Amino acid sequence: MAGYPRASDLAAGLEADRALLGRTSTAERVADILRDRIAEGFFPPGTRLSEDSVGGALGVSRNTLREAFRLLTHERLLVHELNRGVFVRVVTVDDLNDIYRVRQLVECAAVRGLGDPPYQVRAVETAVLAGERAARDRAWQDLSTANIRFHQAIVSLAGSPRADELMRAVLAELRLVFHVMADPRRFHAPYLVRNRQILEVLQSGDAVEAERLLASYLDDSQGQLADAYGRKMSRR
After folding, report:
1. Can the keyword DNA-binding be found in this entry's annotation (predicted)?
2. How far is CA 59 from the centre of its chain?
3. How distant is the alpha carbon of residue 183 from its chain centre?
4. What is the pTM (predicted TM-score) of this model?
């Protein structure tokens, strides 16, 4: 596809990840590496993943790679197109709205179920500080990452590994949307103040107010992003 990285460039970028596999190469570990690369934007939406190039770069068998592709297809990060191959998925506006529906359910429930204060919000605070630092440094991709980590930290307050796993998959899929958009600053910088506000309300022990702020935050974010993404996709 025009505008996407060449297979040889993608393969070269993956060769450094081969060491991460060690002697216990598994489809799950390959999927972890590819998931991270997709989240980073190394494989943009619409990119075809060549079995030969990716498998050769990572030094894994075709069967192992196909199983990794299957896992990521199940997570809605990849899509298999008959007679064409495996591609990084291009998210639709309906997908985006559903992602936010799940986020509302999971993130707000995590805050609602906190119980009595004080709350252990160190990870939330770390993400807020990282976002503010990225904004000062004008490191907009780092700001995007910090914002994702903020929401992961919110869900981690529930103390549920299954909720954490679900959120990781949902936010990885959301990143496919951001990789299509041209200006991460526009979609993340305005929410820095709201991230800090939610943090400070949690630190004060008011989970009810924190949930209210979070629900409003997610509603506003969904409306802004769905509108901009819809216009962007209509021009593709």
Report:
1. yes
2. 26
3. 16
4. 0.81
